[in-house]
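Predicting holo structure, zinc ion bound.
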Amino acid sequence: MKLTAVVFLAATAAVAAPATVTKAVAVLNPVGASGVSGTVTFSRAEGGVKVSAHISGLGEGAHGFHIHEFGDCSAPDGTSAGGHFNPTAQPHAGPTASSRHTGDMGNVVAGKDGTATLEYVDTHASFEGESSVLGRGVIVHEKADDMTTQPTGAAGARVACGVIGAAKAE
Ligand code: CU
Ligand code: ZN
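Done. Tokens:
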């Protein structure tokens, strides 16, 4: 009888385990009156997580683009999202650096029409463990990330904010 109960509980736990996340989405909303909005999709890919961003309402040029520690866009200036997501305690750098914040996605570059798109495979981001980006924040900045200045890249104010949530697998 006891054994039956244990086997039953084990089977129930297996069924109740959450499905593996293969896709996540952050909808970016304007911080204050910036007028910047967009969508960032994260999907499982060979060697990491594919990032696809479509952002509009930007000034022409490069804008810092990061995953921040907290999925909290409640502050009027976006500072509630905290600093760059950095679970491995590394210095700030660009997305191609081997040693960098997990959240360092570099810049998005807007054309004259104020729209920017970016697509690349991020080798540091993950959907599991300490580097999981699920529930973290995405921030777009007013200025370019110089990929050198610590710990922010001197990217200035926050102009859009979104929270990375699990999405339905495709
Ligand atoms: Cu940032
Ligand atoms: Zn950083």
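The radius of gyration is 18 Å.
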